[in-house]
Structure formats: C-alpha cells, structure tokens
Amino acid sequence: MTRFVYATSTTLDGFLADPDNSLDWLFAVEGGEESIAGMAPFIAGVGVMVEGSTTYRWVLDHERLLERPEKWQEFYGERPTYVFSSHPDLPLVPGADIRVVSGPVGEHLPAIRETAAGKDVWVVGGGDLAGQFFDAGALDELHLSVASVTLGSGAPLLPRRIESDTLRLTSVGQTGQFVSLRYAIRRPG
Question: What is the residue-wise DSSP string for 118-172?
Fold first, then answer.
C-alpha cells in the first residue's frame, strides 16, 4: 500500500531552510552524513518523490545537476519525481524522470499513486507542500531528523496547525547531533 511520507531535516526551532532558502546549515551539523546514510532503508522503498520548485531549484543549484546530471541518478536513481511549480519553465536534469505539475495536490494524487505502484511516496519538501498533502488527507507519516541548530527564521517545517491527537509518535533515535522522530498521522474515524 502506498504511503505518503514527509521525510526531512529540521532545526530545533522548526525551520527547513534559512531565509535565503539555503540548507547549508544542515551540512555543518555533526552526524549529518550519518543521518542521511540512515535514510537508505526508507529510500529503498520509495517509488516516487514529490517536491516543490524551491526545493528542486536548491538541489539543482547546490549539486550543479545541470552540469553533472549523473549525480541525480546517484542520489535518486530512476525514481520519477513530481515537482509542484507555478513556473512550467523549470530546467530539467537531463536523463531524469521529472514531471512538473501545477495546481492543487489533490488533482495529482491519482497519478502519483499509480506511478508509485504500491511503493512509498517521499514528500521531500518544502513544508507548505507537505502541508498541502496533509490538507488533502494524503500524508501518512512524518520522518523528522531534528538538528542541534536554530535559525530564528526561514522556511517553516510544516506551516499548519496539527493537533497532538492527529500525531502518534512511533519511534525515536539519535545519530550524532540529530534526533530522529517518526510520527504516524491518524485520521478521525
């Protein structure tokens, strides 16, 4: 059964990226590489990735993927990636299966589920996109890697009010200066 999982790193004060949409803070925290490596079992079960255009552009620029498209395959393999964007002219990584879509998340859920073929869907980010999946009733789990850093401002982890009766903590772990938290999202009824 396809699960929609928002798996990401966040700061202690709940930000994904700094005010310039940079994730450089993440790579300065002890244990970051081990934390990323620890995601391998999760990533192995992922059939589709979805992300917003800001996340996609950051990865594109940070990893210089237009110059080195083979890095996309190293990181993500052959997985199809849906990029939600109001800008249809995004540059695409050569050889990667990137599908730029726009509009409400709910309109694309059937296609995303079909493409996932029973595997998980990794909601990579950002926080507002993950919130849109939550609003559409299509977010099943949160996998958070909380780093020992604060930014004070930036892109929020999940800009929605979600009450504690909706979240069920299922596991806790530690890698370096990161705490791993996993939550199942419970729906009424």
Answer: TSEEEEEE-HHHHHHHHHTT---EEEEEEES---SSSEES--S---TTTEEEEEE
